[in-house]
Amino acid sequence: TKFIEENMKKTYLSIFFAAFILLFVSQSNAQISFQIGGGLGYSVPSGDYGGTTAEFYNGEKYGMESGINFHAKARLGLLFINAFGEVGYTTFSGDGDISQSGGGTVKNSQKIVSMKVGPEFAMNIPLSPITPYLQGFVAINTISGSVEFTGTSVVSEGKKDLTSATRVGLGAGVGVIFSLGGIKLDANIQYHLLNFAGKEYKIDNVNSF
Length: 209
Prior knowledge:
Blueprint: H1 2-8, E1 14-28, E2 33-47, H2 53-57, E3 65-77, E4 82-97, E5 105-122, E6 130-150, E7 158-180, E8 183-193, E9 203-207
Antiparallel strand pairs: 1-2, 1-8, 2-3, 3-4, 4-5, 5-6, 6-7, 7-8, 7-9
Protein backbone atom coordinates (compact mmCIF):
# COMPACT_ATOMS: atom_id res chain seq x y z
CA THR A 1 0.00 0.00 0.00
CA LYS A 2 3.00 2.33 0.40
CA PHE A 3 3.21 2.89 -3.37
CA ILE A 4 -0.36 4.07 -3.65
CA GLU A 5 -0.26 6.25 -0.53
CA GLU A 6 2.88 8.19 -1.43
CA ASN A 7 1.77 8.93 -4.98
CA MET A 8 -1.75 9.99 -4.05
CA LYS A 9 -0.41 12.57 -1.60
CA LYS A 10 0.95 14.48 -4.59
CA THR A 11 -2.35 14.94 -6.42
CA TYR A 12 -5.59 15.71 -4.68
CA LEU A 13 -7.97 18.02 -6.47
CA SER A 14 -11.52 16.82 -5.98
CA ILE A 15 -14.17 18.48 -8.11
CA PHE A 16 -17.57 17.25 -9.17
CA PHE A 17 -20.61 18.60 -10.90
CA ALA A 18 -23.96 17.82 -9.33
CA ALA A 19 -27.41 18.23 -10.82
CA PHE A 20 -30.11 18.47 -8.15
CA ILE A 21 -33.86 18.28 -8.27
CA LEU A 22 -35.74 19.11 -5.06
CA LEU A 23 -39.36 19.45 -4.03
CA PHE A 24 -40.02 22.21 -1.52
CA VAL A 25 -42.90 22.94 0.79
CA SER A 26 -42.88 26.61 1.73
CA GLN A 27 -44.30 29.02 4.28
CA SER A 28 -44.04 32.78 4.04
CA ASN A 29 -45.25 36.11 5.25
CA ALA A 30 -44.84 39.55 3.70
CA GLN A 31 -41.09 39.76 4.32
CA ILE A 32 -39.67 36.35 5.22
CA SER A 33 -40.14 32.93 3.63
CA PHE A 34 -38.92 29.48 4.67
CA GLN A 35 -38.68 26.40 2.47
CA ILE A 36 -37.54 22.87 3.21
CA GLY A 37 -37.34 19.88 0.92
CA GLY A 38 -35.38 16.90 -0.34
CA GLY A 39 -34.35 15.34 -3.59
CA LEU A 40 -31.78 13.37 -5.53
CA GLY A 41 -29.20 14.10 -8.18
CA TYR A 42 -26.41 12.88 -10.43
CA SER A 43 -22.74 13.73 -9.76
CA VAL A 44 -19.94 13.76 -12.34
CA PRO A 45 -16.31 13.84 -11.11
CA SER A 46 -13.71 15.95 -12.89
CA GLY A 47 -10.09 16.98 -12.40
CA ASP A 48 -8.00 14.53 -10.38
CA TYR A 49 -11.14 12.98 -8.90
CA GLY A 50 -11.98 11.35 -12.25
CA GLY A 51 -9.66 9.32 -14.47
CA THR A 52 -9.25 5.58 -14.94
CA THR A 53 -8.47 2.79 -12.49
CA ALA A 54 -5.03 2.46 -14.12
CA GLU A 55 -4.36 6.13 -13.29
CA PHE A 56 -5.54 5.49 -9.74
CA TYR A 57 -3.15 2.54 -9.38
CA ASN A 58 -0.27 4.69 -10.66
CA GLY A 59 -1.07 7.43 -8.14
CA GLU A 60 -2.11 9.96 -10.79
CA LYS A 61 -5.87 10.33 -10.27
CA TYR A 62 -8.71 8.88 -8.18
CA GLY A 63 -10.43 6.88 -10.90
CA MET A 64 -14.00 7.72 -9.90
CA GLU A 65 -17.03 7.40 -12.16
CA SER A 66 -20.35 9.25 -11.96
CA GLY A 67 -22.47 8.68 -8.87
CA ILE A 68 -25.82 9.35 -7.22
CA ASN A 69 -26.52 11.84 -4.46
CA PHE A 70 -29.35 12.31 -1.98
CA HIS A 71 -29.85 15.59 -0.18
CA ALA A 72 -32.05 17.78 1.98
CA LYS A 73 -32.15 21.56 1.67
CA ALA A 74 -33.59 24.47 3.62
CA ARG A 75 -33.90 28.03 2.30
CA LEU A 76 -34.58 31.22 4.27
CA GLY A 77 -35.81 34.08 2.12
CA LEU A 78 -35.13 37.60 3.34
CA LEU A 79 -35.80 40.98 1.72
CA PHE A 80 -32.96 41.10 -0.79
CA ILE A 81 -31.14 37.79 -0.44
CA ASN A 82 -31.75 34.14 0.41
CA ALA A 83 -29.66 31.94 2.69
CA PHE A 84 -29.60 28.16 2.31
CA GLY A 85 -28.28 25.10 4.09
CA GLU A 86 -27.92 21.66 2.54
CA VAL A 87 -26.92 18.18 3.68
CA GLY A 88 -26.01 15.65 1.00
CA TYR A 89 -24.81 12.06 0.68
CA THR A 90 -22.93 11.12 -2.51
CA THR A 91 -21.45 7.80 -3.62
CA PHE A 92 -18.70 7.36 -6.22
CA SER A 93 -17.00 4.21 -7.46
CA GLY A 94 -14.71 2.87 -10.15
CA ASP A 95 -13.46 -0.57 -11.07
CA GLY A 96 -11.29 -2.01 -13.82
CA ASP A 97 -7.84 -3.22 -14.81
CA ILE A 98 -4.72 -1.60 -13.38
CA SER A 99 -3.14 -1.37 -16.86
CA GLN A 100 -4.05 -1.83 -20.52
CA SER A 101 -2.34 -5.21 -20.51
CA GLY A 102 -4.20 -6.45 -17.45
CA GLY A 103 -2.05 -7.57 -14.52
CA GLY A 104 -4.77 -7.21 -11.91
CA THR A 105 -7.90 -5.27 -11.07
CA VAL A 106 -8.96 -2.63 -8.59
CA LYS A 107 -12.36 -1.70 -7.12
CA ASN A 108 -12.48 1.77 -5.65
CA SER A 109 -15.40 3.43 -3.84
CA GLN A 110 -15.90 6.60 -1.82
CA LYS A 111 -18.79 8.08 0.14
CA ILE A 112 -19.08 11.79 0.83
CA VAL A 113 -21.31 13.50 3.38
CA SER A 114 -21.45 17.25 2.71
CA MET A 115 -22.88 20.08 4.78
CA LYS A 116 -23.18 23.33 2.81
CA VAL A 117 -24.22 26.86 3.72
CA GLY A 118 -24.24 30.03 1.68
CA PRO A 119 -26.19 32.84 0.02
CA GLU A 120 -28.55 32.68 -2.96
CA PHE A 121 -29.30 35.60 -5.25
CA ALA A 122 -32.73 35.27 -6.86
CA MET A 123 -33.68 37.05 -10.09
CA ASN A 124 -37.41 37.59 -9.74
CA ILE A 125 -39.41 37.81 -12.95
CA PRO A 126 -42.76 39.63 -12.51
CA LEU A 127 -45.85 37.45 -13.10
CA SER A 128 -43.68 34.44 -13.91
CA PRO A 129 -43.72 31.04 -12.11
CA ILE A 130 -39.98 30.71 -12.81
CA THR A 131 -37.28 32.25 -10.61
CA PRO A 132 -33.63 31.80 -11.66
CA TYR A 133 -30.92 32.18 -9.02
CA LEU A 134 -27.17 32.10 -8.40
CA GLN A 135 -25.56 30.65 -5.28
CA GLY A 136 -22.21 30.27 -3.56
CA PHE A 137 -21.34 28.08 -0.60
CA VAL A 138 -18.74 26.76 1.78
CA ALA A 139 -18.93 23.05 2.63
CA ILE A 140 -17.69 20.60 5.23
CA ASN A 141 -17.08 17.26 3.47
CA THR A 142 -16.51 13.96 5.27
CA ILE A 143 -14.94 11.43 2.90
CA SER A 144 -14.65 7.69 3.50
CA GLY A 145 -14.47 4.55 1.37
CA SER A 146 -12.51 1.46 0.46
CA VAL A 147 -10.28 0.01 -2.24
CA GLU A 148 -9.83 -3.63 -3.20
CA PHE A 149 -6.92 -5.03 -5.24
CA THR A 150 -6.98 -8.40 -7.00
CA GLY A 151 -4.09 -10.06 -8.84
CA THR A 152 -1.63 -7.22 -8.27
CA SER A 153 2.11 -7.61 -7.71
CA VAL A 154 3.18 -4.23 -6.25
CA VAL A 155 0.23 -3.80 -3.85
CA SER A 156 -0.97 -6.63 -1.61
CA GLU A 157 -4.31 -8.16 -2.51
CA GLY A 158 -7.37 -7.60 -0.38
CA LYS A 159 -9.77 -4.89 0.68
CA LYS A 160 -8.45 -1.76 2.37
CA ASP A 161 -10.55 0.82 4.20
CA LEU A 162 -9.61 4.44 3.64
CA THR A 163 -9.06 6.65 6.65
CA SER A 164 -12.08 8.91 7.03
CA ALA A 165 -11.15 12.55 6.44
CA THR A 166 -12.96 15.87 6.80
CA ARG A 167 -12.18 18.61 4.28
CA VAL A 168 -13.36 22.16 3.69
CA GLY A 169 -14.77 22.80 0.23
CA LEU A 170 -16.10 25.67 -1.84
CA GLY A 171 -18.63 25.80 -4.63
CA ALA A 172 -21.09 27.73 -6.73
CA GLY A 173 -24.27 26.92 -8.60
CA VAL A 174 -27.12 28.08 -10.76
CA GLY A 175 -30.72 27.02 -10.47
CA VAL A 176 -34.33 27.63 -11.36
CA ILE A 177 -37.31 27.47 -8.99
CA PHE A 178 -40.66 26.48 -10.54
CA SER A 179 -43.65 27.57 -8.44
CA LEU A 180 -46.52 25.09 -8.57
CA GLY A 181 -49.07 26.43 -6.12
CA GLY A 182 -47.82 25.69 -2.60
CA ILE A 183 -45.13 23.35 -3.95
CA LYS A 184 -41.85 24.51 -5.50
CA LEU A 185 -39.56 22.49 -7.77
CA ASP A 186 -35.90 23.46 -7.58
CA ALA A 187 -33.59 22.33 -10.43
CA ASN A 188 -29.96 23.10 -9.64
CA ILE A 189 -26.44 22.53 -11.04
CA GLN A 190 -23.45 22.92 -8.72
CA TYR A 191 -19.68 23.00 -9.17
CA HIS A 192 -18.13 21.73 -5.94
CA LEU A 193 -14.45 21.81 -5.00
CA LEU A 194 -14.45 19.08 -2.37
CA ASN A 195 -11.00 19.58 -0.94
CA PHE A 196 -9.80 23.16 -0.70
CA ALA A 197 -6.79 22.42 1.51
CA GLY A 198 -5.53 19.01 2.79
CA LYS A 199 -3.91 16.58 0.35
CA GLU A 200 -3.51 13.34 2.22
CA TYR A 201 -4.72 9.89 1.23
CA LYS A 202 -4.36 7.12 3.82
CA ILE A 203 -5.30 3.46 4.08
CA ASP A 204 -6.72 2.74 7.53
CA ASN A 205 -6.61 -1.02 7.73
CA VAL A 206 -6.46 -4.16 5.62
CA ASN A 207 -9.18 -6.79 5.50
CA SER A 208 -7.96 -9.71 3.40
CA PHE A 209 -10.44 -12.11 1.88
